[in-house]
Amino acid sequence: MSLNNPKKSRPTWDEYFLQITDMVASRSTCVRRQVGAILVMEKRILATGYNGAPQGLQHCLDIGCIRATNDVPSGQRHELCRGIHAEQNVIIQAARYGISIPGSTLYCTTQPCVICTKMLINAGVRRICYREGYADKLSLEMLEQAGIELVKMEES
């Protein structure tokens, strides 16, 4: 912003919510990938989530990563992990506090995996904005078939 042009440059709503999602991801306790997710409706944040171990359990930051120890590649064998994905956590948080999410937009630092995609479809999420891709072709196919708008944002 200059004195000659007092109009300040503002982020778009999608940029704004993805920036907040980056902050949410900073709470992640995963040693491999920090992911954040928020659900938004009518420009209001409904719930947030990040990836990490369930409440009250030891975090991978403290005890190590099962997936790293067993050389499990990214995008495979999701059941071999102590953590809950950020997208799962944001749905759980909304449910726990009685927040209705059908018709909402998910902002996520990473494209959802197929497991999270199935949950998001059934939860009624209508739009997903993400920054980083994920090697999961089936997820993309299911989102398209469900008619969920998928928007890949550029790095800011």
Notable features of this structure?
five-stranded mixed β-sheet; 6 helices; alpha/beta; globular; 156 residues
Number of strands: 5
Overall spatial form? globular
Category by helix and strand content: alpha/beta
Radius of gyration computed on alpha carbons? 17 Å
Helix proportion? 25-40%
Strands ordered across the widest β-sheet: 2-1-3-4-5
Number of helices: 6
The largest sheet is:
5 strands, mixed
Instruction: Note the run of SSEs as H and E.
Output: HEEHHHEHEHE
Report the span from N to C terminus: 18 Å
Mean pLDDT: 92
Textual characterization of the structure:
Helix 5 runs parallel beside helix 6. The chain has helices at residues 13-25, 60-63, 66-69, 86-96, 114-123, 137-146; strands at residues 36-41, 44-50, 105-110, 127-132, 149-152. Strand 1 (36-41) and strand 2 (44-50) form a beta hairpin. The mean pLDDT is 92. With 156 residues, the protein is of the alpha/beta class. A five-stranded mixed sheet has the order 2-1-3-4-5.
List the helices and strands and how they pair.
Blueprint: H1 13-25, E1 36-41, E2 44-50, H2 60-63, H3 66-69, H4 86-96, E3 105-110, H5 114-123, E4 127-132, H6 137-146, E5 149-152
Parallel strand pairs: 3-4, 4-5
Antiparallel strand pairs: 1-2, 1-3
Helix pairs in contact: 5-6
Question: In short, what is this structure?
Answer:
The chain has helices at 13-25, 60-63, 66-69, 86-96, 114-123, 137-146; strands at 36-41, 44-50, 105-110, 127-132, 149-152. It has 156 residues and is α/β, with parallel strands linked by helices. It is globular, with a radius of gyration of 17 Å.
